[in-house]
Amino acid sequence: MKARILLVLLAISTWGAAQNKTLSGYVRDAATGEDLIGVNIWSPELKVGTSTNAYGFYSFTLPKGKQIIQLTYLGYENKNFELDLTSNISLNFELKPADNMLNEVTVIASESNQIQEQIQMSKMEVPIKQLKSLPAILGEVDIMKTLQLLPGVQSGGEGTSGLYVRGGSPDQNLILLDGVPLYNVNHLFGFFSVFNADAISNVSLTKGGFPARYGGRLSSVLEIKMKEGNMREFHGDATASIIASKMTLEGPLVKDKASFMISGRRTYLDVLARPFINAANQQNPQSTISPTYYFYDMNGKVNWKISDKDRVYFSHFQGKDDFGTKGRDNYDDYQAEFGFGLDWRNAITAARWNHQWSPKLFSNVTATRSVYNFNTRISQEERFLPNYPDTAGTEESRFAGLYFSGIEDYGARIDFDFVPNPQHYIRYGAGWTNHKFSPGATNFEFQQSGFNLDTTIGGSEIFSDEAFAYIEDEWNVNENFKIGYGLHLNTLFVENTTYTRLQPRIGMNYSLPGDIALKASYADMMQTVNLLTNEGLGLPTDLWVPSTATLKPQTSQQYAAGLAKNIGPFEFSIEGYYKDMQNLVSYREGASFLFSVDDDSWEDKVTQGQGTSYGMEFFAQKKAGKTNGWIGYTLSWSYRQFDEINGGERYFFTYDRRHDISVVMNHELTDRINFSAAWVYGTGRAVTLPEFSYIAGLPEELSWWNYRQLTVERATDRNSYRYSPYHRLDLSLSFRKEHKNYERWWTISAYNAYNNLNPFFMETTQDRDGNPQLREYGLFPIIPSIAYRIKF
Amino acid sequence: MKKIIFIAFIAISASSCGKLTEGVVRNIDLPPHTPTLVGTLFADNSDSSLYAVISQTRGLLDSNASELLPDAIINLYKDNVLQHSWNTQDAQTGYYPLHLGDTLGSNEGAYTFEVLHPDFDAITAADQFPPRAIITEAILNKGAGQIFSLEADEIIVKLKDIAGIDQHYLFSCMVRFVDFAVAQDTSWKRVGLYSDDQRATQLGAGGDAILLSENGIDTDLQISLATSAFLGSSTQEEYEYRLRIKTLSDEGLNYYRSISSYQTAQNNPFSEPVVIYSNVEGGYGIFALSRTVETIVP
């Protein structure tokens, strides 16, 4: 029934458009030839407009005759022109970057891109230039940390990269790098994200009011687009910071036809620390220990314009973290070697083909692969030599353990953009993904005196297939009312079980007096992959597991409403939301995957329950001008309820945060000196505290001999206490200088400038008089850093 | 000036490291804790002695450690009629034993456990005996089982369902040699049990017992158990297993699950917190009744 209504609406809306002509083509950066996303194309006379899609394509149907067209885009010079539209015309535009990339005048002149004109609500965009000028920990600009400063988005804790959007958990964020889902975004245990800002051209985060083209996650869609590469000139960008160096190269393969971009980053903590470790080991050469850690990531992209109507892209990303420690004991009668290590790696590959079928119809076909693997390894070899006490001859033993898990996806999708007239923008498409999950297996090897054990516990692979189709329309009903509506159909096939859900989506924008937009939206979502995570620590050991015959897919319904308005260069919005979530997945009480040597399957260790979150967000943003930045405030509540946790009673989600404030400012002191600051404040994380202890009796099956007691600590309620509030100020000062063939920047920054100890964990200790007390420990004090960047 | 700023910057950074290693003491608004009684009593139809464990709760910031309480009186009622009352604390263990002289037996009716103490309000808990397990078959397949890929003995047990009742079974096992002349020791010894059955839960790190609940599926059950008695190396000597199947009440099932999870989680920093189950009114603890049947295999 819903589908029929949708088709009737589409038919009515496209009727009677025969006397119109269509202007279509691409809008690109005049300097680099790269596509520009979201450029506004506007007819001031008719008060209608459109914008370029994710590939820079636009289609603008107008009445036959003379028309004035205006193109506006943040950071670029406006373009106005007149043309006589007598037939369908294909016209590509190039916009020149403004001298000042965050030019205030440029933005004020724009009319159609104002927040009150858009149907989409709950969508945040931070210009990449602004993002790169904000303070960064250890000099490494981090997209995820910047997104954590937006209202409705919270961090998991000090230093972590996870996003908790509107009371959701990190697995509920669909993170798309060039359209490919990325499963782990963490480097260095979450202190950095895998996104190298130098290789990124565009970032947008949608927290609610999801259009029908998005699916598969409950809480947000983060779209990150890699640079395509300069079509005209060869350029490079290199930065050296305290812990890592990175370099990006881009340029034409065939001028204005094909280009490439390649970017790499690697830490050198291992290299810098090696002399100190070697010196320490020389003090005691009989017993040495050598820890090591590094991460790297690489981005690459090639794109090729086959014709005016066809273009292909190939993009690849891979990253790896490797942490390990090796030790050696070498005594006269005893020798041993031991090792411990963790490594995790991501890789995604995408191939895309754009085709323009007609002035009104554009398609994109994508084939993708995404892989994430995590391994933990431990090993020990011992040799007791004949002169070791009570040893007859040489005795050797060897133990090795390996814990591994992973996920691998292959997918394909086709998307169409159909723009019949300025009143409608229709998108439809379909796709399929094959998932292979390896949800945690432990392999043990043990050899000693002729005894050999080699066994693998758990970890059977699970395959699932997911198919989806969608259709949506953005309909400008009249000057004051716009509506976006659509349907997303998702089906999961797993273990001879099929889950299907038709997910309606709707959003609207009604213009109130005073040019204030009243927006409202509803989105129904389904999620078929789950991240099992320990609530205390954000470790890469977190397991991705599928929905199965017994584990139902997660679902949610989100309602949102708000007001939005532009006043000069300022964007103001206030939004309220309410989100219900079903079939959320959590570990059972006491369960853990790591260091758990039992034969239970992962499904035995999890349970499903419900969640509710609601709140209000205020956001004021100034994207342009010498002084720019934003102020965000969130008031929110988030709860969980699982029948098998907390006695079935509802409890606060660990990342329930009542108040969350962020103030971000970027100011050009002179043409060459830039100052930026970011201050954040958040209510402390919820924590379960053992409020009292007692001696519990043990049943005989669990008691040792006749010792039938165990001292236990008990909480009355889960997550009923709070850590201290989180607050931090970051500062940054950068000095730019132009040379003949290159520009250079020195950037000095301080993370946590006033040295507040933000709690990471808490324990009960004793004071000098032996009285118990609660003590909080943090991770980062003030961290000064310096970075040097050149661009040529 | 630049030098002063630089030195100040380094000094602040260096001094800040102390906070990291020592942490910061923070006052968290903990409500004052009122100590309450804690009582534990497990009673099985095969028991000839009962042991009550009585303690009190201690607040998180209480400098006194939890300890077993003296001066308690323990009462056991059946259908509100006092069956047993005892108050003698074992000086060595600190528990309150009740020696029955015979096995407790398992009569129908509602049992109530009560603890009285001069310094605390009384606590009570109620439970009923669950039906006993009905073993239809128990078979030993020597060397047919596997534990961590090592050869082990397999015991297959079939249990008859009792319609309309959600039954919870706890399996434990002992082994002994049957010929003293050969083995020199024919006493019963506890052995570990393991199972690949996804419905089963392992209790205790050494395979102390296997928990299997019908979980609402009202049907006959069959389970394959592997014993750790002769792991990886068979023996020519004659031996036999004594399989104990204890049926638990709902209260017992909840407590066994939570206390076992707590024990497992104790040394694992990555484990989720566990709330120990309690069915005691006015305090904490557990009162759980069970019935045990045994069978010799083969």
Q: Which SSEs are present, and which pair or pack?
A:
The complex is a heterodimer of chains A (792) and B (298).
Chain A: H1 2-14, E1 20-29, E2 40-43, E3 48-51, E4 57-63, E5 65-72, E6 79-85, E7 89-90, E8 93-95, H2 104-109, E9 123-125, H3 128-132, H4 143-147, E10 153-155, E11 163-165, E12 173-177, E13 180-181, E14 186-187, E15 192-193, E16 200-206, E17 220-226, E18 235-240, E19 244-254, E20 258-267, H5 269-283, E21 287-305, E22 310-330, E23 334-358, E24 361-384, E25 395-421, E26 424-448, E27 451-457, E28 462-478, E29 481-494, E30 497-512, E31 516-527, E32 529-532, E33 543-546, E34 554-567, E35 570-587, E36 606-622, E37 627-642, E38 651-652, E39 659-668, E40 673-682, E41 686-687, E42 692-697, E43 709-714, E44 721-722, E45 726-738, E46 743-751, E47 759-766, E48 772-778, E49 783-791
Parallel strand pairs in A: 1-7, 1-8, 12-17
Antiparallel strand pairs in A: 1-4, 2-3, 2-5, 5-6, 9-16, 10-11, 12-13, 14-15, 16-17, 18-19, 18-49, 19-20, 20-21, 21-22, 22-23, 23-24, 24-25, 25-26, 26-27, 26-28, 28-29, 29-30, 30-31, 31-34, 32-33, 34-35, 35-36, 36-37, 37-38, 37-39, 39-40, 40-45, 41-44, 42-43, 45-46, 46-49, 47-48
Chain B: H1 2-22, E1 24-25, E2 37-44, E3 49-56, E4 58-59, E5 73-78, E6 81-86, E7 96-99, E8 110-117, E9 120-128, E10 135-147, E11 150-159, E12 168-177, H2 180-183, E13 189-191, E14 193-194, E15 200-203, E16 209-213, E17 221-227, E18 239-248, H3 250-265, E19 284-297
Parallel strand pairs in B: 2-19
Antiparallel strand pairs in B: 2-3, 3-7, 5-6, 5-8, 8-9, 10-11, 11-17, 12-13, 12-16, 12-18, 14-17, 15-16, 18-19
